[in-house]
Design a protein that fits this description.
With 268 residues, the protein is α/β, with parallel strands linked by helices. Helix content is 35%, strand content 18%. The strands form 2 sheets. Strands 3-4-5-6-7-8-9 form a 7-stranded mixed sheet, with helices on both faces.
């Protein structure tokens, strides 16, 4: 199944297979037959979360390069850029949430499954540095299959580089809120996904490290039906809350208000 944004009037729901008219998905992109949540683009996510007209993207001119001469990587990058209109798998910027200013980073699974590479790493690091300079709380919305295999060790190093910058954010006593959406897997879940002071998950999100199929191929076990589900992770104490998509903006506003972060104020 392609993970690029679907075009056309009718699309098949990936969960139930029913054909759904574009008008039926609605603002929240939910199947009217089985209530499955479609994966949002980063732009759609931003539009749903922030105050209208408040998002100001950070300038991020760099683009990925095929440092390892990985076969067909250049073509895949070009195709992803053409299909999504993005230059990489994350959008960063500042925005307000009911007038609470914040630094927002939103990953996009439609761009090469939102995988972490050198450019995504640098954009997140730069965003975190801006947050420290402006004394802003940080919200990171994850949607990723993990580290980008076409960049090998360069992508894996990015996990530690981001964690180091998050440690500096913590030293500055600025809050980090992570919102785990479908999917949040691999190196993203293993590094910064669960590092938030508050860790939220969107309802029905798949969250984990290795996929269930890989695990069952290597270990003779039967996994539970709710394996790697947001609900299961919350039940086991891995998350602070599971939130339905229409309620996510209000939840973030409540969390920001509880930290009393506004402009240069540090959290209480």
């Amino acid at each position: 199944m392609s993970h690029y944004p679907k075009k056309g009037i009718w699309t098949a729901c990936p969960a139930c297979g029913r054909h759904v008219h574009a008008s039926q998905w609605g603002r929240w992109q939910q199947c009217p037959y089985c209530q499955h949540w479609q994966r949002l683009t980063a732009t759609e996510r931003i539009d749903q979360l922030v105050d209208p007209g408040s998002f100001e993207p950070l300038t991020m001119p760099e683009q990925a390069h095929n440092q390892l001469a990985f076969p067909n990587y250049d073509q895949k990058l070009a195709h992803a850029r053409q299909m999504t209109g993005l230059t990489e798998a994350v959008i960063t910027g500042t925005a307000t949430f009911d007038h609470w200013p914040s630094l927002l980073a939103v990953m996009d699974s439609h761009f090469m499954m939102g995988t972490l590479n050198t450019v995504v790493t640098q954009r997140l690091i730069t965003a975190l540095q801006v947050a420290r300079q402006r004394q802003l709380p940080v919200i990171i919305v994850t949607a990723s299959g993990g580290a980008r295999m076409q960049e090998g060790l360069y992508a894996l190093v990015g996990m530690n580089l981001i964690l180091a910058e998050l440690a500096r954010l913590a030293q500055a006593t600025l809050p980090l809120i992570t919102v785990l959406t479908d999917p949040t897997m691999g190196g993203v879940s293993a590094s910064f996904g669960f590092k938030g002071d508050v860790v939220l998950a969107e309802a029905d999100a798949k969250i984990g490290f290795a996929g269930a199929r890989v695990i069952q191929q290597t270990m003779p076990i039967t996994l539970p039906s709710d394996f790697q589900s947001a609900t299961s992770l919350e039940a086991h104490g891995m998350l602070d809350d599971v939130v339905l998509r229409p309620a996510l903006r209000a939840k973030l506003i409540d969390v920001l208000a509880s930290y009393a972060c506004q402009g240069g104020d540090q959290r209480g």
